[in-house]
Structure formats: structure tokens, C-alpha cells
Specification:
It is a single chain. This protein is mainly α. The chain has one domain. Helix content is 54%, strand content 10%. The chain contains 1 helix and 2 strands; from the N terminus they run ββα. It has a two-stranded antiparallel ribbon with strand order 1-2. β1 and β2 form a beta hairpin. The protein is rod-shaped and about 60 Å long.
Length: 59
């Protein structure tokens, strides 16, 4: 368990908490959303790199 800064109020909150005890901001949902967005970016990048490899191979 680690303490992180709440993106809304800047207060300290556990990284396993559902919501910030100071302001009630849904920190778990916030960070879950960020993780999903990062996964999508990485997958898109991987697909683009594979496409570039195939295009180079055809030449």
C-alpha cells in the first residue's frame, strides 16, 4: 500500500482506496481509466509497428 496524491484536491490517499477521504474524488476509477487508456495506446502502437514491418517487408 502506498500513499498517492489525489488528482482533485492534492491530499494523500491510499493507492488501494476507492475514493479520497478528503474530498470524495473517485481515485480508483480515475487511475483505472488512466491504465486502460495507456493499454489502448500501447496496443495501437504495437499494431502500427507491425504494419510498418509488413510494409517494409513487401518492398
Amino acid at each position: 500500500m502506498a500513499l498517492i496524491d489525489c488528482p482533485e484536491c492534492g491530499g494523500k490517499v491510499s493507492d488501494s482506496a476507492e475514493a479520497c477521504p478528503n474530498c470524495g474524488y473517485a481515485v480508483k476509477k480515475h487511475f483505472d481509466t488512466l491504465k486502460e487508456e495507456e493499454k489502448k495506446k500501447l496496443e495501437k502502437k504495437r499494431i502500427e509497428e507491425e504494419r510498418e514491418k509488413r510494409l517494409k517487408k513487401k518492398k
